[in-house]
Amino acid sequence: MITVDDVAFLRSRYGEKALVAAEAMALTPDSLVADLTELKSRYAPHDALLVEVTKARRRAAGKLPHAGLLLADDASVQQATAGPVAALRAADIAGRWRGALVHDVTCSIGSELTALAADPGIGGVIGSDLDPVRLAMAQHNLDVTAASGSVRPTLLRADAHTPTSTADVVIADPGRRNASGRVFGIDDLDPPLLELLSVYAGRPLVVKCSPGLDYRNLRTRFGFNGQVQVVSLDGGVRELCLWTETSGGPENRASVLRTGPDGRIGLFEVTSDDPDDLASPGIGEWIVDPDGAVVRAGLVRQYAHRHGLRQLDPKIAYLTGDAVPAGERGFRVLEELPVHEKALRSALNKRDCGRLEILVRGLDVDPDRLRKRLKLKGDTAYTLVMTRVGRAGVAYLCEPGVRA
After folding, report:
1. 113 lies in which domain range?
2. pLDDT tens digits for 24-38?
């Protein structure tokens, strides 16, 4: 476990030199024993510490800005908000509460603070955490990213269970791991979600949660009436965010972030206020699998309306139409098949199928097990979309997916 003294060592000139040495090593399973031996001969008793921080930096690459300069451990990197997602939240806050003083009450190593400080629409930033080691790491991380910030965050040690500021907006990111691993229940979070909502009731509160949070239960059973925002980045759903103050905004919002060829981050959003009337279900030339944020936020119909698509089935998230929306992945339909293995095997053999991507919704099918049982022997690649239309299982053999 990393200590405050460890952080002080890493921030020293000698510690910085030791990290440079560790970063030059492979640190792979095959090389680790030799690498540790070398580090121990030069930097004992900090050899294991150097490996842990170096691996954390490598894990943070592509997720957090300035990853190669940060101080972090594996757990804090896993919990940290990806840079583009944090920047989106900062922009949202600046747009709703221009010039606000924002307090991140679970700041950990400071990934949210960096984004908040960099947004010119934020008036001031406070970060607090109960863990002195995380605070020490956050101080270092803010120091190395200070040039990109318009304000200088204030750090303090405090318990998120107790309000310690009169900030205009509060951000919280409850811990989702304990000694047994990842937790999913709202009472298992640290701090517990309902406690956070109670402690900061009456104040604008933004809570970052796991994408798997049952927000429908939170609304119906516990009376949450704020906004649910689901955010994805480059096709992966990253988080579900609760906003207690919506100012009449939509109940649900899907925010889809994508990195373009030039490295810039693009954004499109779908909300529950968008129209959702669609043509009757049926099959078109293409099948479209909407981004996970759209599906998780329950906004498939709104997304389909925007792009002139329709559903294969009213209760299934697959969409279909005569064109694929820009930036989305689509599958051109070649043939409709029954879901019986014998019929699938026969059709795939006739088409010389040797590589098969299997997508499933609404059916109890394990794609990997099915692929093995189909015993493919050809050279051509296809995609098989398996789903339910009404009460019947249906399979659509398609060309490999293409990005429009």
Report:
1. 79-270
2. 999 999 999 999 999
